[in-house]
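User: Can you write out an input/output pair for a complex, sequences first and structure second?

Assistant: Here is one pair. Inputs:
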Amino acid sequence: MIRHPLAWGAWTTAALAAAFIDRNPYLQALLLLVVINVFLPYRGRRRAGTWKFALALALVPILFSAALSRFGQHVLFTLPAVPIIGGRWTLDAVAFGASTGFALLLTVAVFAVLQTAVHSADFVAILPRPLYRAGTTVALALAFAPKTLAAFQSIREARQLRGQRTGWRSAPALLLPLLLTTLERALQYGESLDARGFGSGRRSRYRPFRWTAPDVLVVVASVTAIVAIALLPVAPYNPYLDLVPAVPNPARLLAVGLLAVPAVSASLSRVDHARHHA
Amino acid sequence: MPVITLDAVSYRYPEADRPALSEITAAVEPGEVILLRGPSGSGKSTLLRCLNGLVPHSTGGQFRGRVLVCGLDTREHPPRQLGTHIGFVFQHPDAQFVLEDVEAELAFGLENLGLNRSLMRKRVEEVIDQVGINPLRRRRIDSLSGGERQRVAIAAALAMHPDALVLDEPTSQLDPQAAEDVLQVVLRLVAELGMTTVIAEHRVERIAPFVDRIWTLDAGVLRDQPPRIALAEGGARPPVVDLALRAGWTPIPLGLRDARVFAQRLPADPTPRPSPARAEGDFRDGAGPVVCRVEGLDHRYDAAPAVQGLSLTLRRGQVVALMGRNGSGKTTLLRLIAGLMRPQRGSITHDGVAAYVPQDADSLLFAPTVDEELRGQSAEVVAPFAAWLHRYPRDLSSGERQQLAIALMGARADLLLLDEPTRGLDPAVKRALSAYLRTRASGGAAILVATHDVEWAARTADRVLLMADGEIYADGPPAMVLSDSLVFATQISKLVGRGWLLPEEVPL
C-alpha cells in the first residue's frame, strides 16, 4: 500500500489536473475507473454518503444546462413558451451538462480517495517543525467538524422533542447551544492535549515515513502524467459542435492510465500477503 | 516519599461565590489505591484536576496551598510537564483523543516526550499487552465503542510510565459490561504493577474490596478514611455493606467474597420471597388502563434488525424497566414508541401523550436561565426548582440537569419514556429520581425506563423487561426476573438468592 503522504499528494495533483483539463468522455470514463480502483482497497473506511453527495452534485449541471440552454440541433422535446424553461430542450445541452457534472464527480471522488487513504495526522506529521502546532490545530478542527454536525442533529432533535420549530427559521436559536456544546468539547480536548504533554517542545515520530519503492513509483507516474497532460494537445469536447466525442490521443489515455499505479501496488501487496499466509 | 501530597489546598473557580475545594490536606503513598467519592457537584473532578495541574493552569481561579507531585510543585510546573508523572483518564470517552488510529494514539504522549523510536515501540507493545488491547491496535478511534475507548485512554496514559494513574469517573458513560471491562483493566494494573491509583467511581461495589483508603468529598471538604469506616458512615456504598450494617456483621465485608461467610449465618430456611406471579404460572402485565399498545413491531437498520416481532402493553400506574445489553434495541424501541421513527411493520396505539427524554439530556436545555426553561409550565412543575430559577442550566450538576429535563418533558405526559436516566448520577440523586417516578406512576402515568442499573431498577420498577436481539425474552416483576438472572442480578440476590433483591428486604 502507498503510505507516504507526499506520494498521495502527487497522485491527487495529477488526478485533479486530469479531471479539470480533459472534458473528453472517454478520458473521463477512464479516469473514473482508475479512481474507483484506487479507492477499492480502502472502501471499508468510508460510508456511502460521499458517493451519494457526489452523484447528486453531478446531476445539478445536467439539469441546469438542459433547462436553460436553448442551443443544439438534437431536440428532445419542446416546452410551451413559459419563462426560463420554455422552448427547445436539446440532447446537446444535456451532454454539455453531463460533461461538467462528470468533472465535478471526478473532483469529489479524488478528494474522497485522498481523505480516506491518508489520515490528517499523517499530513500534520510531515509538516516542518515550526508549522507543527498550527497543523495539529487544523487537524483537530477538521476532526471536530463531524462531531459538531452530530451535536447539531441532537440539538435539533431535542427542540423537536420539546415541540419547538425545527425549520430553517429556527436556525439562530439552534446556533447558541451548538456553539456552547462545541466550546465545551474544545475545552476538554485542550485539557487532554495538555495532560498528555503536547507542546512541551521536544517531539519525535513514532512512525517516520520511509520512501518505499511503490511510493517512489507513484510519484514518478504522477509527475509523468502531469507533464503529459500539460504538454500533449488537449482533448476537448464540445457537444454543440459535435455530439459524438472524438477518440482521444492514445498517449493521453496512457497518461491517465498511469494514475492507476496505487491500485496496482495495493493489489500486488495483497497477493504478497496471501502468499505469506499460505 | 508520597507520590502526591496535598497541603492545605483551597480553590475557587473564577467568578464563583463559594470555594470548590477548601483546606484539603492528604497524601498518596506509592502503591496505594484511593477511591474518591462524593455527590455530583462536590468537587471530585476539580480535586483530580489539581493532581496534574489542570487546576489552576487551565481553569484560572484562586488557588491556595500546595500540591506536590513527585516533589514537583504544580504551581510551578504546567500539566504538560506533570503528564509524565500523572496518567490522567477523563470521564468522556470521546473527548480525549487526538489522532485517528489506536496505535498512533498510544504513541502520541511518547512523541511529545521526544523518546527515540525503538523505546516508543517497546513502550507501545508493552501497554498493548498490559491492557489487553492487541485486537484494537489497528482500529480507527471513531470505530471504537465507549468501553474500548476508555481502555485505549488508560493504555495511552500508562505508556508514559506515570508514577500514578488518576481516573475521573471512567465508567460513568458506559454500560455495565463495558464498565466491567474498564475496571478489570484498572484492577489488573493495581494487582500486577502495584500501580498507584486515584479513582473517582460510582460503581463502588466493584472496587471497594481493592481500595486502601476512601476519600469522601462533600461541598469541597475532604475526609480521608480507611474503607470500612468511610463506608459505615454513609455515602455511595455496596449493598452488602448495607446488609452487613443491618445484620451487625464485623468486620464489614467489602465485597461478595467476604460476605459469603456471613451470609451462611442468615436463617437457613427463611420463607422464600412470596412470588404470586410465579405461582400463577404466567405473569399478567397489570390491571391499570392501557396507555400504549405495541403489536408485531419490526424495525431494521440497513440489514440489522433492531426490533423484531415485538408486542407490549403499557399500563397506567406502572414503572417498567427495560434492560438488556448495548445494541439490544432498547433505544430503538423507545424512539419508535415516542414517534421519533416510523415503524417499518406493526402498530403502536397510544391513549394519551407520550414524552421521551434521550440519554443526553443536556441538549434539551438551552435557555439562559432555568426560569426561562420552565416558562409556561404549571406552578406544580416549577415548584421543586424554585431555588435555581436564576441559574444557568448548563452550570447545574448532571443530576440536576437530568431532573430539570425530565420535569420539562414529562410534565404533561401520560407515558414517560426515559433512556438511561441514571447514568453518572450519584446515589442521592438516583433515589430522588426513583421517588419522582413512583409519584408520577401513582398519579396515573405509565413509565418506561431503559436502564442498565440493576440495583436502581430493583428499587424502582414494578415490572422488568429483558431485551436481546430486538426481542423481549423476559417479562415480569423484578423479584422474578432479576433474581434468577446471572447478569441482571442485584448484589444481594447474588449473595442471598431466594428472590431477595435489596438489603432492607432480607429477613434476618
